Amino acid sequence: MGKFHRLTAVLTTAVLAASLAACADDRPSAADAAKELAAGLSKLDVGGSAFTVVRAEDVTTDLGTITEALAPLKPKVTAGGVESTGEDTATATLDYVWDVDASDEDWTYSTSVELSREEDEWQAEWDPSIFVPELRVDEHLAREEIPADRGDITGANGEVLVTQRTVLRVGIDKTKAPEEGHDAAARALAALVEIDPASYAEQVAAAGAEAFVEAIVLREDAPLAADRAAIDAIPGAVALQDFRELAPTRSFARELLGTVGEPTAELIEQSGGKLEAGDITGLSGLQQQHNDLLAGTPGVMITAVLGDGTTLTPRPLFSKSPVNGKPLATTLDAKLQTLAENTLAEEPSASSIVAIRPSTGEILTAANGPGSEGLPTALLGQYPPGSTFKIATTLALLRKGLTPESPTECPAELTVDGRSFNNASTYPAQFTGTIPLLQSFAQSCNTGFISNRDKVSQQELASAAADLGVGIEASIGTPAFFGVVPAEAEGTAHAASMIGQGEILVSPLALATMAASVGKGARVTPTVMAGGQDDASPSDSAPSASPSPSSGPSEDASKSTNAPAEPSKLTEEEAATLRTLMRAVVTEGGAGMLAGVPGEPVHAKTGTAEFGSETPPRTHAWIVALQGDLAVAVFVEEGELGSTSGGPLMEAFLRGAGS
Q1: What are the pLDDT digits (tens) for 555-606?
Q2: Tally of CB atoms within 10 A around 328
Q3: How far apart are CA 368 and CA 156, in angstroms?
Q4: What is the C-alpha separation between 510 and 622, in angstroms, rounded?
Q5: What are φ and ψ of residue 567, in 5° steps?
Q6: Which of 366, 368, 326, 327 is nearest to 345 (CA)?
Q7: E strand or H helix at 268, and its extent?
Q8: I need a labelling partner for 129 at 20 to 30 A (CA). Which of 121, 183, 356, 563 fits?
Q9: How many CB atoms lie within 10 A of CB 282?
Q10: Over the range 147-177, which residues count as b (16 or more CB within 10 Å of their CB) and which as e?
């Protein structure tokens, strides 16, 4: 072919291509319109789409009305296939995914929408059924949460401690009394149930005209619940039967087990969207720390509601069954816990009794007296241990070669760097001078231990305490304070450490652990969680509270400031010697009241720790004891001597435990 013909062919092809391009349809497609509509439905704002009959803003208003009860929930909508049904008509599929809760199971479905082109614009035919299948124009969506059954909390031998129990919700039903009588009725009911009348009257006044305003929740066995005549006598006052997760009694291990109820504003904020007003959740203690395990997962139901929902039954659209909570198994012994609380019932100051089974480390009681005023003294208290710490001091001395027969110097007074140390005012005079270590321990001679301060460094003292479990952190299933023993101290500070004063701090749990370690002959790791509960670790976000320590504040009362310790070097031979010395406290020393306790021989150590700036200073009273496979620590925040304030409490507990 010649050059001219080739050029003609090229030009002809170019002209044809230009002509075809000019005929191409560059208008928006039905697929584009479907995609834009899906994006708008996802936002519940379809302002970017066009509709055949209604305005886009009216459709957006309809969507808001339909989904108002689900706010802030919105669907994720994507455009599926688009099928052409004519030159200017098409049908598009819309795929919906609603993330209705925190689970992986979503509400999913598909609808179809008719599209038609008017001039250069694709328009959708609006009907509520393209948003939800078969949804009518007079229906809207509603979401109902289906509560899961909360798991029980059990104790030793599987005994149920916390379970659903019957209660009465007492309050004013404003529909059952004339409006002018609401204030008087509220004040009368408040006085009856012993809450602030003015505050409750304000709550009643602020509530809606048909509201029930709860004043108090009563246990079924409460006197007022059993005899409701006084409630019924108040106009508008009612008692509604309900259920709550409760322990056997109101006070039973309350600080440890915690409570369940509607979340506070603070908990709602801390939950990151998990909690809403009106939910039921753990509020404190194990109930809060293990809420995820106990609460389970609520179910959910999405319904189509006609009008206000009062005339016709809502039409189910989607439902998911709840997953009930799992039980939380603890080591608490219901009998011993009740015994401990009864033993402390008359003590006016903060107090506690902690009992541990040495062979297993199981915490059997973590009781707090009424003087603790709701603070978890047993597990989170921070106090100097006084002479009970001489158990650890003696262990350090034994490692330096001393024996129970080794002579110790026990003067009436000893001065260290200008500071005078004395024995208790009741210390027996016949045990001053040179006496064996056994008598220094049994009689609790402060000067006898301080006179040996140069034999034991502060680091060796801290190591001995750590070998007995003091200052050793453990994951017991709830926040706890395990004690602090400084590794460095000199002069009077080291001298004070020898007798459990200075900067040494412990909790009743820490001292019970120390006694248990002596009983076992190896360091005990305490726990309040029964075996086989690997998934029952507390939430990292669970807050903890502690009483103010008498020797100064701590940044975090749930943790020791000691570094993780090496494996314990405690031997059975050392523990046997310590048990011999502790037995002498009962047979020859200040714990003689325990000599007649039935059962296996009791081993003990008393302690008194000074605190405050008064003259004379106030004192904490301590006593720890071993009897068979039971280790117990008793603490009284403002007592006299360990023997006089703590001893009778220990005796009452041990006698009750053995009966």
Answers
A1: 344 444 444 558 999 999 999 999 999 999 999 999 999 999 999 999 999 9
A2: 23
A3: 19
A4: 12
A5: -55, 145
A6: 368
A7: helix 265-270
A8: 121
A9: 26
A10: ebebbbbbbbeeeebbbeeebbbbbbbbeeb
Q: Which residue has the tokens 């027996």?
A: 428
What residues have CB less than 8 Å from 119, skipping those under 6 apart? none
Token pair for residue 582? 């502790």
Say if residues 462 and 493 touch (Cβ distance below 8 Å): no
Q: Which two tokens stand for residue 616?
A: 């004379």
pLDDT-derived band of residue 309, with 50, 70 and 90 as boundaries? low
Cα gap 109→97, rounded to integer Å? 7
What integer pLDDT is reported at residue 272 of this predicted model? 79
* Nearest-angstrom CA–CA distance, 393 and 497: 9
- Neighbouring-strand partners of residue 117: 122
How many C-beta atoms lie closer than 10 Å to residue 216's C-beta? 19
Q: Name the pLDDT band for 265 (thresholds 50, 70, 90).
A: confident
Q: pTM of the predicted model, to two decimals?
A: 0.81
Nearest by Cα to 653 from 255, 369, 375, 248: 369
Strand partners, 246: 163
Residue type, 355: A
CA-CA-CA-CA torsion for 97, 103, 105, 106, nearest 10 degrees?
-20
Question: 439 pairs with which residues across the strands?
Answer: none
- What is the per-residue pLDDT across 69-124, written as a single tens digit (0 to 9) for each? 999 999 999 999 999 999 999 999 999 999 998 788 999 999 999 999 998 899 99
Q: Whole-angstrom distance between the N-terminal and C-terminal Cα of the chain?
A: 122
Domains of the chain, first to last: 30-136 (3.10.450.100), 153-329 (3.90.1310), 334-510+519-531+545-645+652-658 (3.40.710.10)
Residue 290 structure tokens: 């293990």
> What is the Cβ-side half-sphere exposure of residue 134, based on CA atoms within 13 angstroms?
7
How remote is the C-alpha of 386 from its chain's centroid? Answer: 31
Asked if residues 243 and 164 have their Cβ atoms less than 8 Å apart, the reply is yes
Separation between Cα atoms, residue 51 and residue 274, nearest integer Å: 38
Q: What is the mean pLDDT of the chain?
A: 89
